Amino acid sequence: MRYINAKPEFERVDQIFIPIVEATATLPHILSEVKQNAGEDYVIVTGDGLEVKESSGTEGFKFWKVSARKFYAIPEDDLRPADARGVKRSRTAAESQAQLLMGRQLRTTLPQVPDKMNPKWPYLRKFRVQDQKFKLQQKANFA
Questions:
Q1: pLDDT tens digit sequence for 54-83
Q2: Residue 10, Cβ neighbours under 10 Å: how many?
Q3: Other C-beta atoms within 10 Å of 7: how many?
Q4: How far apart are the first and last CA of the chain?
Q5: Exposure letters 32-47 (e unless 16+ CB within 10 A, then b)
Q6: Residues 85, 60: contact at Cβ < 8 Å?
Q7: How far apart are CA 115 and CA 29, in angstroms?
Q8: Most buried of 42, 55, 124, 131 (most Cβ within 10 A)?
């Protein structure tokens, strides 16, 4: 699995059907069925590439039988980040792990004309006076 434009891309995609009932709708059962079909140890990930961990939230039909949710089984070695596999990645001090994962800068400042930043409310002055009175009253009540 690799990330292209902040979306996971899988090298190979196959489809298998795993019959489940309420009692077998658990992550360990799903993993054992995948191992039985594929013969190696896999990890279940969501369509975003996030690992599904065993918890009370991943038990039962409510989690596994959602038509909009897709699950993928990937080899355990593919889940580890590139740094853990020994692949060197260039990273500046300003880049965070999230920025490397997403492949883009997460916070950007958009150019803005200062005149456009002033609100154009019809009763702005009255609002500011009332807001100042409210703040002073709150300060007096809770000081």
A1: 888 888 878 887 777 778 888 877 665 544
A2: 15
A3: 12
A4: 57
A5: ebbeeeeeeebbbbee
A6: no
A7: 61
A8: 42
**Is 138 in a helix, a strand, or coil?**
helix
Contacts of 58 (CB under 8 A, 6+ apart): 26, 27, 52, 64
Residue 137 half-sphere exposure toward CB, CA atoms < 13 A: 6
- Angstrom distance (rounded) from CA 143 to CA 141: 6
Provide long-range contacts, Cβ within 8 A and 24+ apart, for 30-36. 30/64, 30/71, 31/73, 34/73
Of the candidates 11, 9, 23, 73, which has an alpha carbon nearest to the alpha carbon of residue 46?
Answer: 73
81-128 pLDDT per residue, tens:
544 444 444 555 556 666 777 777 667 666 778 877 777 888 888 999
**Predicted TM-score of the model (pTM):** 0.49
